[in-house]
Specification:
Helices cover 42% and strands 28% of the residues. Helix 1 packs parallel to helix 7, helix 7 packs across helix 8 and helix 10 packs antiparallel against helix 11. The protein has two domains: 209 residues, GAF domain (Beta-Lactamase); 197 residues, Alpha-Beta Plaits (2-Layer Sandwich), CATH 3.30.70. The chain is elongated. Strands 7, 8, 9, 10, 11, 12, 13 and 14 form an eight-stranded mixed beta sheet that branches. The protein has a six-stranded antiparallel beta sheet with strand order 3-2-1-6-5-4. It has 422 residues and is α+β, with helices and mostly antiparallel strands. It starts with 6 loop residues before the first helix and ends with a strand. Strand 1 and strand 2 form a beta hairpin.
């Protein structure tokens, strides 16, 4: 009958069905993004639809990262990854992107014959594709909708004010003459499935990254995995890293709000980056200070103490460099106080039925905060407890005793240590 598909067409339809099923499975089992792009691009090639280069990217809800993207090519697979902060969106590489006018004009699909020399002059990307023998660029945008912000506290509850998530991709071919009519029909059917599979994976990553920005990596992983419940805490031995900016309250009284926030952000960068680089986890920001922890792994207390001490020294050095710049600019300097203590803490979820907090609690946390308050009276920016000094075997030569001192709320005086002079 005339309506029966030819054997070739039937085989093609079956191949598309197999690829569609693969995309569904990839989304359901959270196949890593790179593997999904690689698998989809190579399977299109197997389908007889030659894709030489694939670009894929999407925006995020992260307070620091605006978008992430990657490039795949036939010879080397995923070979370039990019991450752009909110402040990067005026960068030349983004201003020249062919997706920018598409997003601005609401154009969801565009084809460009990059084998045409005149068309190739539109953007640097098209010129590069032309020079490497590519023939056609196909760009698609898939909106993922928006996440509604919570009502209250004056936050707009209209979807037009919410951040919209979208996925962009381009497939570039080197087939002579570009994409054929049949190629476009296949892509029209498969690309929405590809975007849906990406969304299944990406939304999970967006959620985890958003939690990590506010809770830290380890708490975010636990919360997102559903492994914590209210009151579900565990005992963990850790080095506690407690900081406070000395004189910040007085400075806040005479500093304009935006300038004060900018200073606080700079100070937190001085503290947080060394903690992360040395394997610690920032658990909580405490106004103008923070609480971080370095977990004792496999009973190696000495290693955790050494990492925490290195992070503290680096944080203080960064603050001093920040202050040197502020002095040159004629602005007041600010001091950072740090205390290090080791002990067992309760780590997990506490709070009410409607509002939970992932944190650490216990006497060791209280002792760390009270040690920090003695920094100024004892004339040291870094104080360490006796327990820390006893555990920090490899770093003991770097410490000097300041004698025994009483901590508020602690019955017995304890010996405190400072960093020995270089």
């Amino acid at each position: 009958m005339g309506s029966d598909p030819s054997p070739a067409r039937a085989g093609q339809a079956m191949s598309e069905a197999v690829l569609a099923a693969w995309l569904a499975e990839a989304g359901l089992r959270n196949l890593p993004f790179d593997e999904m792009v690689d698998g989809f691009s190579r399977r299109l090639d197997d389908l007889g639809l030659p894709v030489a280069r694939t670009f894929a990217g999407m925006n995020t809800l992260h307070p620091m990262v605006r978008a992430r993207s990657m490039i795949w090519d036939r010879s080397s697979g995923p070979n370039a990854h990019f991450e752009f902060g909110h402040i990067d969106f005026d960068a030349p590489i983004l201003r020249r992107s062919p997706f920018l006018p598409m997003l601005q004009d609401g154009v969801m699909m565009r084809r460009v014959r990059v084998d045409d020399a005149a068309a190739a002059q539109e953007t640097l990307l098209f010129a590069e594709l032309h020079a490497t023998g590519m023939t056609e660029w196909l760009g698609r945008i898939f909106p993922f909708g928006s996440l509604m912000p919570a009502a209250g506290l004056g936050v707009p509850d209209s979807a037009e004010h919410a951040e919209r998530l979208f996925f962009v991709c381009s497939l570039t071919t080197d087939r002579p003459g570009g994409y054929r009519e049949h190629d476009m029909a296949v892509l029209d059917r498969l690309l929405p499935l590809f975007a849906l599979a990406v969304k299944a994976v990406a939304i999970g990553a967006v959620g985890h990254d958003l939690l990590a920005a506010y809770l830290g990596d380890d708490p975010a992983s636990r919360v997102y995995a559903g492994t914590v419940v209210r009151g579900g805490v565990q005992s963990v031995e850790a080095v506690l890293f407690y900081t406070d900016l000395r004189g910040f309250t007085a400075l806040a009284d005479v500093t304009p709000g935006p300038e004060l926030i900018a200073l606080l952000d700079e100070c937190f960068e001085c503290m947080v980056e060394p903690v992360a680089q040395h394997g610690g986890e920032v658990l909580k920001f405490l106004g103008d200070g923070l609480l971080a922890a370095f977990a004792v792994v496999a009973g190696n207390r000495d290693a955790a103490c050494g990492a925490a001490l290195d992070a503290a020294v680096e944080a203080l050095a960064r603050i001093e460099r920040l202050n040197a710049r502020r002095r040159v600019e004629g602005r007041p300097a600010i001091a950072l106080d740090v205390s290090l203590h080791i002990g067992t803490v309760q780590y997990g979820n506490v709070g009410t039925a409607t509002r939970l907090d992932f944190t650490v609690i216990g006497p060791a946390v209280n002792e760390a905060s009270r040690i920090e308050r003695l920094c100024e009276p004892l004339g040291s920016s870094l104080l360490m407890s006796q327990h820390f000094a006893e555990a920090a075997v490899s770093s003991r030569c770097r410490l000097v005793s300041l004698g025994r001192h009483r901590l508020r709320g602690v019955r017995q005086p304890t010996e405190l240590y400072a960093l020995a002079a270089a």
